[in-house]
Design brief:
single chain; about 250 residues; mainly alpha; 7 helices
Amino acid sequence: MFSRNDNKFSDLFLKIYASVFLIIIFYTLYRIILFYLEGVDIEIIFDKYFKYLIISTIFILFFLVSLKLNNNIKQNIVLIFTSTTIILYVIEFFLALYFPELRDNEIRKINQDKKIEKYNNFINKNIFPFEVIKKEFNFNDKKIFPLTYIPNVNTFLCNETGKDIFYQSDKHGFRNENSQWENKKVDILLIGDSFVHGACEENDKTIASFLKQNGKNVINLGMGGAGPLKEFAIFREYAQFVKPQNVVWFFF
């Protein structure tokens, strides 16, 4: 036999568990709305967050229905769920403490698989993920070392804050509008690595964008992963098309 206090104890835990998953739903909806307002594709958003809504809803309904069951069943549900949660965290702590390399390898493999799946989805939509090209290749018996990225394509740049960043590359593969190359006068030409490229920043928050907002005609030749030698090669190859008044070369 279970006392009335045991019944209240079980009800309290079931309500706490239901509340936790309700908080998860509200937080997930907040993230969905936030990304949608920032212009992220709704399909990409739901692909990432829909599973959290479904799983949390199922658990909430389960715990609420459990409140109507008899005391014995409620006690077992609370015991099983609490024990399972504690055991999982103990195992996680044990593996992280004594076998960190296994956990790191597993996380790395999961992240890699997710990255490949995400990139394939992008490519199917004609969105090309930016990757630093560091190797030469042979073409018609000549060695080619790419200096820029794919020209005139919708480019996925990165995601460091939970938001996917995209931009449209210009005719040379840089982060400019094609019309900027037609300006008769270019005030500033920017050379550099990912900082100039605008890694994980929206188009209106890059260095080039701030200069353009101040009335300057700017060409951005920044390229993620570039070092001084590659940056100089980019300058020699592309600065000749615009003959800028000033060149700003960023070193990091």
